[in-house]
Design brief:
The chain is mainly alpha-helical and about 170 residues long. It is built from nine helices and no strands. It has one domain. Helix 1 runs antiparallel to helix 9, helix 2 packs antiparallel against helix 5 and helix 6 runs antiparallel to helix 8. The longest helix has 27 residues. It is elongated and about 55 Å long.
Length: about 170
């Protein structure tokens, strides 16, 4: 095994490792299901929530960006629900929420004041903070990441034993 492969395996093992409690599944279920639902709705209701919405708020290339964001929300939402590569899946969703807040909620703040913006932004802020939480702590013990991490722990010990054996 070449050194680059060892480094990439160690990096992946760190990505899936999590000491978060099993209750983290509750955050994963809400964050994953909301993003999955919102991504699907971009395709089901394109005029209101997909391309039409992106055109209305001034997102460049709305015919490209709306489906792209929809696919990101669907795929990352499913990964978070499964607890598979949760930290990696949370990153694009954090960016997604930063763009959503900056393009839709800051204009509300300027035009209608704090309380109107706070009311309209509650789900956006919850999804933003939930995604940050999952990025920091990982997916928890009830996840596919936990199984992948266990596989890495088992197989890394086997590799270390073979490496420490004397060469003929």
């Amino acid at each position: 095994m070449w050194n680059g492969e060892v480094i990439s395996m160690q990096w992946l093992a760190r990505i899936v490792a999590s000491s978060a409690p099993a209750a983290t599944i509750l955050v994963r279920v809400i964050v994953g299901s909301v993003f999955l639902s919102e991504g699907l709705q971009k395709f089901l209701f394109p005029a209101q929530l997909g391309v039409g919405r992106f055109e209305k708020i001034g997102i460049p290339w709305p015919h490209v960006m709306a489906p792209f964001v929809g696919i990101v929300e669907i795929s990352c939402g499913v990964l978070i629900l499964l607890g598979l590569f949760t930290r990696l899946a949370a990153l694009p969703l954090i960016i997604d929420m930063l763009v959503a807040i900056s393009t839709t909620k800051f204009p509300l703040l300027i035009e209608h004041g704090f309380w109107n913006m706070a009311h309209e932004a509650r789900i956006d802020f919850a999804m933003f903070l939930g995604s940050i939480f999952l990025f920091i702590v990982g997916s928890g013990s009830w996840s596919l990441d936990a199984h992948v991490a266990q596989w890495f722990r088992t197989h890394s010990r086997t590799r270390l034993r073979f490496r420490s054996a004397p060469s003929p």
